[in-house]
User: Which sequence fits this backbone?
């Protein structure tokens, strides 16, 4: 994170504050934040229609302007998706947009309309189960959203009406209402500050619920309204506010207030982000404030900022859809083949109309095409169970329940922050195990974002305090170690100006004792003392460093802030009325000490000054005043005004602040690289500082050859030549690596300016497109890449570039600040760090973790397990449905294609719902094919969606076909023309079908048992319990005469089958034969071609046996 830029105005007490009053106005913060698609990001100036707000709903004087009442939304927040009236139709519409659900609905309707071989219940009941479970889940989630909305909308608010305070509900607020907010209360909507209980018209605010920053920010009332202290005075205000229409940038606001007074022209004052109090923020250290509602309800910046979030789909879901299309084609092929063969079979008259089954007159009169189409639909109904509709609900339940295992993981709980991992979306659990590229921020992600002042250098003389306790000022200052003698004369003046600039040019606030998150701050040795807070940890470290060097910051009176172009501007009028402008910022060309500090990984800040003549000062004030009153293009006009005075600076000195590397950050990066992932660091810091961090975190090693693609190099050579030189270097090494020569490790460093040139189409390369492919080729051959001086949008562009490359790798972006939101949303998987730069990254991410070190377990353990589990779930569902339906297809060849079902209706209905559903669901939740503590090479076994590739899918399908043939033909040939019972009775077709179904249920369940590596009592209970449930259900279904059934074709069938000894022998034999090929395949593969995971498992077993 780079130190935020601010303008701070300071006047000694004996100087009149009115002289600098024109500077104490609105400035805009050019900061990137996430905006919904289609909207402009912050920093991109655009103009939208303005709105006029009448404070207190008072009409302006007749001569001032025309009164045009405008309608705005009320203050209700609506995050819910459904209402009581539209839940059923809207939810059903959304669910039937899924191909599988819509398909089964059509099958169900066909069963109702035409005469089909199976009951409509066989399709309707599973579909009803899936729809009901999904609707209950979505309805419950929406009910929770309704509860949250109600608690917010019914929150009490104090509103000023006719000079008195009236309490009302938050939802009843309207634009233009004046409200009173007390300390520790949350702002009910977006407000413009009118006055506060503080004498200077300021108030302190925390925006924890918006961006997670717990620091106190200062907001200001305009001078003309800050004197109103009572409800009566506020109610007497006659003014209007003109401002831009709502837009989601939290840090941007353009407007002006027109104040009307009797017999005077209206007074216009600019309004900016420092006057706007955002909904969700909390008032701190201020008794109360009066403010006017400017944006309400869904127009507030908080609502706009979190409304739009693109839906991400995992690679597994895409594979599921592809497999579904294949099985749909198989289904249609089966129906077509059976329809054609049926009419071929019925070609002869004796088969078309046998003596025992004559057609009706209606059937004879029907056209053959209509009859064929009806038969085709009947076969579609008969074979439709090959499409696993219950797979979708099982996958959804697995993802939803599985996400709790991440949140419950104690290894990912941080004691310091008191939080664990958070799952914002459960749709991407398995995608964590497929990540190939990791894009990480530096400050606050790889580093702690806990700044410590190291040294400062003034005119080449270095000052080093012994120790700085970040966030706490010690009451007794220890001695100072100075690497030079006491300065004097001219140099002493420079140092005094340097130290004063660092003491005053910031947004730091000095606070007394305060309790924050149950922790008392401002206590040292049992005595109260002051402590510093700021939105920037850099600023706190600098102010604390100055205190240790003898310059104590107490407070900044009548100050304001301005961020512009990565520097801090400080205008000082000394006692001799000499005006000096001091600028501090991170510059490229600095002295040797700064370069040395940067190489060591320290964060550097340079301070320079320039004297202003009274005429220059007055001219600057005039231009700034004009620019600040503009509603359109205000930022550009402010930039032009500052460009006039931001020149001819004299360098005073520089500071060095250290941001320590996070615990186990280097170990995490090393583990990810060993697992085959490529790690890129994307940062806004300068190259030397970022490179030092990369070496410390083991992203770059001492043996790594660094390739530079920077602005400095492209100024010496053309971009075309530099790219082709680097390309030749890496390609030459790749050709040598094929000759058994030791491979050279490369690392690439690129800056933002060069990246822009690379991504911009070049006329020189019009024949070959642009430089992107060359750049990507270089990156592919580098073990690590560092992108420095990156703007937030460029971070997203890098991620998008890699996503769109020909390999289409799975990408992950991780960061902790608002400037990382763009790349977090762009990547396949976004992870936010709950750090010190706020929670906006965590709120917009798919997952949030306390520290960077937790990424290792998130990817290499949870991601790996989830991918293997869900891949097995998907393949197993298709496999067991092939085993289920293919015997039905074979049976048609032995029943004259009469559409006679092989299985009973109850078995058709409950196969996927009850008999085989729970074992695979539990497997997909708790299966561990290896221990958590394992070598990282296991990641490579599942890379590139390895377990859901077409060869693996073909193997599972062929295995299902083989088992189905064993079930059917085994039962057919073993018991053909054979008596079974003691009384000489032979098995009928329902007994035959029950025998096949029994072998089927036991085989597919035992197949899952063979694939299970991690056995617990729950596994035993579910697997053996499912088999026991099938047996008990079959006994009850066939052993009792059920009064609600018109006919009971399964009566006594199951008992009769079990009473035969050959049936028991046949069931056991067929199950063993069916499972044998898979067992042999597993043994051969593990012996001859073991995977890295199997090798590591064997190694662990051997190691444990040795001990």
Assistant:
């Amino acid at each position: 994170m780079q130190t935020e830029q601010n303008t701070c105005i300071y006047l000694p007490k004996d100087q009149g504050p009115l002289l600098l009053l024109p500077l104490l106005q609105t400035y805009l913060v050019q900061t990137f934040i996430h905006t919904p698609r289609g909207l402009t990001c912050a920093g991109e100036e655009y103009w939208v229609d303005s709105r006029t707000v009448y404070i207190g709903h008072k009409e302006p004087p007749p001569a001032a302007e025309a009164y045009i009442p405008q309608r705005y939304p009320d203050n209700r927040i609506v995050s819910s998706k459904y209402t009581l009236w539209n839940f059923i139709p809207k939810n059903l519409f959304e669910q039937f947009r899924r191909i599988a659900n819509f398909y089964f609905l059509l099958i169900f309707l066909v069963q109702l309309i035409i005469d089909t071989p199976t009951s409509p219940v066989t399709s309707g009941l599973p579909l009803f189960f899936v729809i009901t479970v999904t609707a209950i889940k979505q309805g419950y989630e929406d009910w929770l959203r309704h509860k949250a909305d109600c608690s917010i909308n019914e929150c009490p608010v104090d509103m000023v009406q006719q000079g008195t305070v009236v309490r009302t509900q938050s939802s009843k607020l309207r634009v233009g209402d004046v409200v009173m907010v007390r300390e520790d209360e949350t702002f009910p909507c977006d407000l413009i500050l009118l006055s506060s209980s503080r004498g200077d018209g300021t108030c302190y605010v925390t925006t924890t619920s918006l961006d997670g920053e717990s620091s106190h920010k200062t907001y200001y009332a305009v001078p003309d309204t800050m004197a109103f202290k009572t409800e009566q005075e506020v109610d007497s205000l006659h003014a209007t506010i003109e401002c831009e229409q709502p837009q989601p940038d939290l840090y941007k606001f353009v407007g002006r207030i027109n104040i009307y007074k009797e017999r005077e022209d209206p007074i216009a004052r600019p309004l900016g982000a420092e006057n706007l109090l955002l909904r969700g923020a909390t008032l701190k250290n201020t008794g109360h404030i009066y403010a006017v509602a400017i944006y309400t309800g869904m127009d507030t910046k908080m609502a706009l900022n979190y409304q739009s979030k693109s839906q991400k789909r995992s690679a597994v879901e895409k594979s599921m859809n592809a497999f579904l299309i294949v099985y749909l084609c198989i289904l249609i092929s089966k129906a077509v083949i059976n329809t054609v063969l049926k009419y071929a079979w019925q070609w002869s008259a004796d088969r078309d109309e046998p003596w025992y089954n004559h057609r009706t007159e209606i059937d004879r009169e029907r056209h053959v095409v209509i009859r064929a189409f009806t038969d085709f639909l009947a076969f579609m109904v008969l074979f439709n169970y090959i499409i696993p509709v219950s797979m979708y609900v099982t996958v959804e339940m697995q993802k939803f329940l599985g996400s709790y295992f991440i949140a419950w993981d104690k290894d990912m709980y941080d004691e310091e922050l008191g939080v664990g991992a958070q799952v914002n979306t459960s749709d991407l659990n398995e995608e964590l195990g497929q990540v190939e590229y990791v894009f990480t921020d530096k400050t606050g992600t790889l580093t702690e974002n806990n700044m410590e002042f190291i040294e400062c250098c003034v005119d080449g003389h270095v000052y080093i305090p012994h120790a700085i306790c970040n966030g706490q000022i010690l009451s007794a200052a220890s001695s100072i170690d100075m690497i030079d003698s006491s300065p004097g004369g001219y140099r002493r003046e420079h140092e005094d100006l340097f130290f004063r600039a660092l003491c005053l040019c910031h947004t730091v606030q000095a606070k007394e004792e305060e309790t924050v998150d149950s922790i008392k701050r401002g206590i040292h040795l049992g005595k109260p003392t002051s402590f510093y807070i700021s939105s920037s940890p850099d600023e706190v470290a600098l102010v604390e460093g100055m205190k240790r060097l003898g310059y104590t910051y107490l407070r900044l009176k009548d100050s304001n802030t301005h961020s512009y172009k990565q520097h801090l501007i400080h205008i000082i009028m000394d006692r001799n009325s000499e005006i000096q402008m001091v600028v501090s910022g991170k510059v490229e060309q600095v002295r040797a000490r700064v370069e040395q500090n940067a190489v060591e990984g320290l964060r550097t800040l340079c301070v320079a000054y320039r004297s202003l003549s009274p005429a220059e000062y007055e001219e600057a004030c005039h231009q700034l005043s004009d620019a600040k009153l503009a509603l359109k293009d205000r930022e550009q006009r402010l930039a032009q005004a500052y460009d006039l005075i931001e020149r001819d600076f004299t360098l005073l000195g520089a500071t060095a602040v250290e941001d320590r590397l996070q615990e186990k950050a280097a170990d995490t990066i090393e583990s990810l690289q060993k697992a085959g992932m490529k790690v890129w660091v994307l940062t806004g810091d300068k190259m030397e500082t970022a490179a030092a961090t990369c070496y410390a975190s083991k992203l770059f090693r001492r043996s790594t050859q660094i390739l530079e693609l920077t602005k400095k190099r492209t100024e010496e050579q053309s971009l075309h030549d530099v790219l082709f030189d680097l390309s030749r270097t890496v390609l030459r090494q790749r050709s040598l690596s094929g000759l058994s020569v030791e491979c050279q490790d490369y690392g690439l460093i690129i800056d933002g300016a060069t990246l822009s040139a690379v991504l911009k189409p070049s006329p020189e390369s019009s024949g070959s497109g642009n430089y992107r492919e060359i750049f990507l080729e270089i990156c592919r051959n580098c073990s690590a890449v560092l992108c420095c001086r990156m703007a937030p949008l460029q971070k997203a562009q890098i991620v998008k570039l890699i996503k769109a490359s020909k390999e289409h790798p799975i990408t992950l972006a991780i960061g902790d600040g608002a400037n990382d939101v763009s790349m977090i949303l762009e990547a396949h998987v976004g992870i936010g760090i709950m750090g010190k730069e706020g929670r906006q990254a965590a709120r917009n991410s798919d997952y949030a973790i306390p520290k960077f070190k937790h990424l290792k377990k998130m990817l290499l353990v949870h991601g790996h397990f989830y991918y293997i589990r869900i891949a097995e779930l998907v393949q197993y569902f298709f496999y067991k449905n092939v085993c289920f339906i293919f015997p039905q297809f074979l049976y048609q060849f032995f029943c004259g294609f009469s559409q006679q079902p092989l299985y009973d209706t109850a078995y058709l209905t409950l196969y996927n719902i009850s008999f085989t559903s729970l074992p695979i669901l539990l497997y997909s939740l708790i299966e561990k094919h290896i221990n958590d503590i394992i070598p990282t090479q296991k990641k490579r076994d599942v890379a590139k969606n390895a377990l859901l590739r077409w060869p693996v899918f073909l193997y599972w399908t062929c295995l299902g076909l083989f088992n189905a043939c064993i079930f059917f033909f085994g039962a057919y040939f073993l018991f053909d023309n054979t008596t079974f019972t003691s009384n000489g009775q032979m098995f009928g077709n329902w007994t035959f079908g029950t025998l096949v179904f029994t072998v089927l249920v036991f085989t597919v369940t035992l197949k899952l048992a063979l694939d299970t590596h991690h056995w617990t009592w729950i596994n035993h209970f579910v697997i053996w319990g499912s088999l026991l449930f099938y047996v008990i259900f079959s006994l009850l279904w066939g052993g009792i005469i059920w009064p609600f059934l018109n006919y009971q074709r399964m009566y006594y069938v199951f008992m009769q089958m079990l009473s035969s000894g050959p049936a028991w022998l046949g069931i056991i034999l067929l199950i063993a034969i069916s499972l044998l090929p898979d067992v042999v395949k597993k043994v051969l593969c593990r012996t001859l071609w073991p995977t890295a995971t199997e090798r590591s498992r064997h190694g662990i077993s051997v190691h444990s046996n040795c001990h």
In short: The chain has a mean pLDDT of 77. The chain is about 45% helix and 15% strand.
